[in-house]
Amino acid sequence: MTVFESIVHIERPVAELFAFLSDMNNHQQLMPPHVQDWRSTADEISFSIQNMASLRLVVDQRIEDSVVSITAVDEPPFKVNFRWLLAQEAGHTSVQYSITAELNMMMKMFASGPLQKLADHETAALAALFV
Description:
By secondary structure, the chain is of the alpha+beta class. The protein has a single domain, classed as START domain (Alpha-D-Glucose-1,6-Bisphosphate, Chain A, domain 4), CATH 3.30.530.20. Helices cover 26% and strands 44% of the residues. The chain is built from two helices and seven strands, in the order βαββββββα. It has helices at 14-22, 105-129, and strands at residues 2-10, 35-40, 44-49, 54-63, 67-73, 80-89, 92-101. A hairpin with a 3-residue loop joins strand 2 and strand 3. The relative contact order is 0.26. This is Polyketide cyclase/dehydrase/lipid transport protein. InterPro entries: START-like_dom_sf. It comes from Mucilaginibacter defluvii.
């Protein structure tokens, strides 16, 4: 498994960030512009990535004010999980976003850059929304 991580610190209560990240309808605001055909409910999203793949993601775990875990379903191009870890610290919330992907060597060369960019983009978008 290959892990891509991005961490930000946001000056908001952990409960506020958890509430936002727990509702999958809100995740469209975190996505890069090449995401298309967005459909969502509170528990799942589906979308396509321009010139790449279509994905359906489902929340598989919520732990109040600390974890939102999301899994790809319906035979994605490779096994992938997304995990938001939240921790209240002095004056801010630490937000760690990780993408864990099962990549063979060929897919690793192709997908590592875009997956790290996605992790960085989503945490930066989250921080910008809560300025």
